[in-house]
Every structure is written in structure tokens, then in C-alpha cells.
Design goal:
326 residues, alpha+beta, four-stranded antiparallel β-sheet, two-stranded antiparallel sheet, extended
């Protein structure tokens, strides 16, 4: 965009600021506007508490705007599912084609607001109970535009405060004094939630949770349980599970190729018959000899505790704790 601003763009920006005031942000490079940003809400008159959805519209003005279409970005959608967002994007594309050559920001704001007004209910699921929002549900919109059943959010906040107090009771008194006070947080974005828990507790549970069929174990679930049990048993056998009693391996085990054959191959008696010379040449107390040349005597695996250098002295230096011959 050149330093000379199109008069149509100047008039549009002035009108947006006059109508939307603090609800619109104009970014400029020098005196040239480059980005127009505003949060679009559904039309609910003066009742702001009934606005359950919103989206941030970002219009990036191209150098030849309005003779060329601007770049449109919808950010931070709240309470909107992917299907509705795809529909809005499609309508925006058609609107840009119809309004080519004239300012279009007001048209885009009205288009998005109409869609939000028609779908002014949160879509998706309550992230606490995983049930959707149905007719008859009592739900709440937090300051961060996240939606929960009032009953579910009350249980979440009560449990959070209880857990906080249990952890505080484990601390010494001086740490309890310095610890920050409990603050109820949104379970999605961790923003502070300011609401009356007692009022939320009086709300009924979600409709879908009351009408849901009783839980039953399906054949698919049983098959999955058997599969996971087999995988767990295999991991335990290979020492891949921490904290499974004495079933895991020792912290350090030095073995030889003969040990691997003994565990996975023929029996020990067959190995002793096949390799009598190797058994005769074993030298107890020596470490493993996996990298010896062919024909060299086989050494017995070291089964004792592993020790590196003596920590009281450095290797190669004599004195107290020195390692090496005196």
C-alpha cells in the first residue's frame, strides 16, 4: 500500500471508530491502516450475559484494497464448532467477491453477527462431564467465554478447593502463611473464575446425564482390555514397568552372548554338551568377553555389584582411596 491512503479506506476507518469506538483496533504503518480487528458478538440487545458465542474478526488490508479483497482471519472462536466456522468462511468468501471495489468491513461484521445470533448457544461438549448442551440445561459462560453446565462447574470448583486445602495441610506453618490464597480457575484456560458456587450448586445435573442409558461393557471393550493386559504382561516380563515389585531387572546386569542363548535358545544341558571346552576354560570373577577374537577362552559373566572408580580418590593417583596396584 502506498503512502497515499485511498479516500474510501479513510472514510471506512473513521466510520468504524465512530460507531464501534473502543471495540475496534486499527493498526497502522505510518499513517496507512493495515489491520482492522474487532470482536463480534451476537445481537442480544443490552443483555450482554446472554451472549454465549463470539469470534475475533481480523481484516488485513491488502495494498490495493478495496479494489482487491482483504485477507480475513477468524481468531479465538468461543462456543463455535468447526462446521459453523467453515460455513462462515464460505459466506465471507462470497461476500468479498460480491463487494469487490468497495469497503467491505461493515458487511463482514454484519454477516458474522447474523450467524452468531442464529447459533447463540454453545456447541460441543462440557469438558467436565463430556455431555453436550441440550434444551433444558442450565449452563454458565465464564469471563473467558468457556461454557460449562452449572452443576458440573460447581462440583469442579468444590473439588479444586478441597484438594488445595488438603495440600496446604501437608505444608509447615511458615509455608502455609506464604502460600497464595485459593483462586477458582477455568478448567480449560486456567483463568480466574469469579462466580457464586452456592448458586451453581442449586442447578440440576445435565439433561443428557440423567437420560443416558446405563453403562454396560461391550465386546469391543473386553477385547481392548485383553489386548492391554497382554501388552502390560509383556512389558513387565521385559522389565519395562517401573514399580512392579521384584519382577523388574537388577539395576545393572553384565551378561554374555552365552547367557542370551541360554535364555532364548536350547537348554543349559545341551549347551554344556556342545561346548565342553568353553566350560572348562571359564574363569570365575572375570568380566564378560563378548568382543574376544574367535578361539579365545569364554569368560564367565560378572554377577557382582557394579563399581566405577573409588569416589574417595581419582583413578591413577596413589594415596587414600586410590585405584590401581600399589
Amino acid at each position: 500500500m502506498t503512502s497515499v491512503v485511498d479516500e474510501r479506506v479513510t472514510d471506512e476507518v473513521e466510520a468504524l471508530v465512530a460507531i464501534l469506538m473502543d471495540d475496534v483496533t486499527i493498526r497502522r504503518v505510518g499513517n496507512v491502516p493495515t489491520v482492522i480487528e474487532t470482536v463480534v458478538n451476537p445481537s442480544t440487545g443490552e443483555d450482554i450475559d446472554q451472549q454465549y458465542v463470539c469470534v475475533t474478526l481480523e481484516v488485513r488490508l491488502t495494498p490495493n484494497y478495496p479494489d482487491a479483497s482483504p485477507d480475513i482471519v477468524l481468531r479465538n472462536p468461543r462456543g463455535l464448532d468447526d462446521e459453523l466456522l467453515a460455513s462462515i468462511h464460505s459466506q465471507i468468501k462470497n461476500k468479498l467477491a460480491d463487494c469487490l471495489g468497495q469497503p467491505v468491513v461493515f458487511e463482514l461484521i454484519d454477516l458474522i453477527r447474523e450467524n452468531l445470533t442464529a447459533c447463540n448457544l454453545p456447541s460441543g461438549q462440557c469438558v467436565i462431564c463430556l455431555f453436550g448442551f441440550a434444551e433444558g440445561d442450565v449452563f454458565i459462560k465464564t469471563q473467558c467465554y468457556h461454557h460449562f453446565h452449572s452443576h458440573c462447574l460447581a462440583n469442579h470448583l468444590i473439588s479444586g478447593k478441597k484438594y488445595y486445602q488438603e495440600e496446604m495441610d501437608k505444608l509447615p506453618n511458615w509455608q502455609q502463611v506464604q502460600a497464595p490464597p485459593y483462586q477458582p480457575c477455568c478448567p480449560v484456560c486456567r483463568c480466574v473464575v469469579t462466580t457464586d458456587v452456592e448458586t451453581l450448586k442449586s442447578a440440576p445435573p445435565p439433561v443428557e446425564s440423567v437420560n443416558a442409558p446405563p453403562f454396560r461393557v461391550t465386546p469391543e471393550m473386553l477385547a481392548m482390555q485383553r489386548k492391554m493386559s497382554h501388552l502390560l504382561a509383556r512389558q513387565i516380563a521385559r522389565g519395562g514397568v517401573v514399580g512392579s515389585g521384584n519382577l523388574g531387572p537388577r539395576p545393572l546386569t553384565i551378561t554374555t552372548a552365552a547367557d542370551a542363548v541360554a535364555n532364548n535358545g536350547p537348554s543349559q544341558a545341551a549347551q554344556e554338551t556342545a561346548k565342553p571346552e568353553a566350560a572348562a576354560n571359564d574363569q570365575p570373577g572375570n568380566a564378560s568377553n563378548d568382543c574376544n577374537e574367535p578361539g579365545s577362552p569364554q569368560r564367565q559373566a560378572y554377577r557382582g555389584p557394579y563399581r566405577g572408580f573409588n569416589r574417595r580418590g581419582k583413578p591413577g593417583r596413589r594415596g587414600r582411596g586410590a585405584v590401581g596396584p600399589r
